[in-house]
Every structure is written in C-alpha cells, then in structure tokens.
Amino acid sequence: MNAPQAHPLQRIRQDVRSMHAYAVQDSTGMIKLDAMENPHRLPPDLQDRLGQRLGALALNRYPDRRVDDLRHALSAYADLPPGFELMLGNGSDELISLLALACAVPPDAVNGFRPASVLAPVPGFVMYAVSAQLQGLAFHGVPLRADFELDETAMLAAIEQYQPAITYLAYPNNPTANLWDDAVLEKIILAAGAQGGLVVLDEAYQPFSSKSYIDRLARHRHVLLMRTLSKFGLAGVRLGYLMGTRELIAEIDKVRPPYNVSVLNCECALFALEHQEVFAAQALDLRAQRAILLEALADFPGVRAYPSDANMILVRVADAQKTFEGMKARKVLVKNVSKMHPLLANCLRLTVGTVEENRLMLTALQESL
Q: Is the pLDDT of residue 1 over 70?
C-alpha cells in the first residue's frame, strides 16, 4: 500500500507562497502611460542598422569580452571617477537582488542574533523590500513626511536603531518623483556610513533629473550609485549598472551569475551609447512635455500635481479608483498607486508621454474626475 504523497507545494517557502507576483497591467489597445517608459522609438534608419548588427551576432556562443566594452562605454558616459568601477545587471532589479545576497549575513552573536537589515524611505520602489525578504534580510521602511520629503529625524533614528547593511535612497524617488533635500541627504549618508553600512543611491530617472550624485560619489567610499538604461530608452533591453569603489564592486560582483547580460542586451546598449545624442534629445523633449503637463494640471480643479524631476507626475484626486477606471475606459492606462502606502491615498502616477499621448491623457483625466 502506497503511503500518502506530500504535496510538492510544501517545499515552497511559506513567505513566498503568501506573496503576490509582480503584476503587469494589460495594455492592449491602450495609450500606455503606467510604467515610466520612454515613448519614443529609434528612428527607422537606426532601427535598420541595429537590426543588421544584432543579426550578425554569434548567438550560439556565450557572451564574451564585448561586455567589458560596454562597461567601459558606460563608465565614460557616466563620467565615473578614477578608482571607481562598474558592474552590470539584468536590469536594476537583478542588482538589487545581488546586493541583498552579498549582504545577507545570518543572525549570530556578532550582529546580536538578528538578520542584517535593509532600510529605505517609504513609499518607494517595492523591489528594495522584496529583495530583502527573499534573501532573509529584515526590511525597515521609514515613512516620508506628508510633503514626500525625507523625515530626517526618523531616518537618523532608524539608522541608529537597525544599523542597516544597505540604505536605499532613490534620487529622484518613485513614485513621488521628487529629489531629496541635499543637506538631509548628506546627513543620512554620513550616518549610515558611520555605522559601517552601504548607501545605494538609485538614479533610475537620471536622464530627466536636474541633479545627479555622480560628481559627489568620490566623497564617500560606502556609497554605491545605481542606474538603468530602461528610462534612457531601452526598457525592453533590461540593463542596469552599479558604480562604486573598485574594492566594493569586486566583492559584490562575486555573487553575480555568469553571463547575466546577453549578447543582444550588450550590443543594443553599445549601439544606444554610440547614438546617445538621439536619446538625449528624447529626454529633453520629455522634460519639456513634463513642464507642459504640470502647467496644465495646475488648472484642473480637484487635482494636486506634485513637483517632478522624473518622467512621471504624481497627482492626488478625489477618488483615485474612480478616476483610474474612467481613464482606462477611455483607453488611457496610468498607475493607481493609492493603495501602496497611506501617504499615497487617492494618488495616481502619470507617465510623461508624447505630445499626442499627453493630450489624450489630460482629456481622459478631466473627463474621469
């Protein structure tokens, strides 16, 4: 007689079973303004040239030293300081996971029988918390102030209490789209460094921002700067990069899977950097469109639009769910972030699109209020 067979799901971690997979909204037939993508495509002549270049690749071989060419090209593009290095990831998401993996010190007598921790302001990018949980680190979210600025007192107290292995500071933040006050930012960076922690400045939206931390990176050996080519205009390519001191990057790079950047991703990114003036012009256009949108939204009764240094605008309306559904019915897809955090009650996140997309978005928003 056969013994009863245990269900294989029992082998899946309970915390994983209780999670929800990352949901991507169905955008079929929609004006897609929910994911902070660059709406501009490559000009047709560049599309043809890229296609020919990708078609000539040896897809039967693993990625080779061409990846080093990309690292050097990105270092030059970012103006990386001497003595600093750069590592590549399959999007910033992989880099965030690798950072958690590298810092996942198990509980023991040295750290007070508690796991290493990750700290970040909330609301913020959800993957900071997800990667911490999956790697066994404790995540501590520190609420922003009501104006979405960093709460200096609360952040400094949390750093002292939890002594985080990693403190994430998105610059600008997602979904609030604002930059942090420089003086407060520096105090938090210094406090985290004083207790031996890393600080990761996430500059995912750097192409649209008025500031970058790259010119200050050499001041702090414990600061890592993370960027992505997704907002640059290559969201489909999935390529992020992490910059820091040579010794820090060398240690984190040890947990990177081999061949994590495909030959297609690598060549697409190199091609884009060779034509970076095209993407710079696109970013300039989106910054101009952002200003036009903010001016128009200021005249919408019942709508509060918050300042933005990214390619998105956070707005607060009377009823976020009703407005979201109304816009969706009018074939305009935005992001309802109202349930992400209490500070985001009745908030929607609008991606900055093309002139025509923005016109249709404003019309849909006005008709859906």
A: no
0.90 exceeded by pTM = yes
60-274: CATH class? alpha beta
What number of other Cβ atoms are within 10 A of residue 339's Cβ? 11
Contacts of 324 by beta carbon, 8 Å cutoff, 6+ apart: 334, 336, 348, 368
Say if residue 175 is preceded by a cis peptide, omega within 30 of 0.
Answer: yes
CATH topology of domain 8-44+277-368: Aspartate Aminotransferase, domain 1 (3.90.1150)
Residue the block writes with tokens 């067979």: 5
What is the residue extent of each domain of the chain?
Answer: 8-44+277-368, 60-274
Return the structure tokens found at 216.
């200050």
Please provide the size of the chain in residues. Answer: 369
Q: Is the pLDDT of residue 4 over 70?
A: no
Domain 8-44+277-368 and domain 60-274 have a common topology: no
Distance CA(310)–CA(315), nearest Å, equals 14
- Whether residue 108 has pLDDT greater than 80: no
The DSSP annotation for 191-250 comes to: HHHHTT-EEEEE-TTGGG-S--SGGGGGG-TTEEEEEESIIIIITTT--EEEEEEHHHHH
How far lies 88's CA from each of 57, 181, 244, 268, 309, in Å?
20, 29, 12, 14, 25
**Confidence check: pLDDT of 25 > 90:** no
Angstrom distance (rounded) from CA 74 to CA 78? 6
- Mean pLDDT to the nearest integer, 82-88: 96
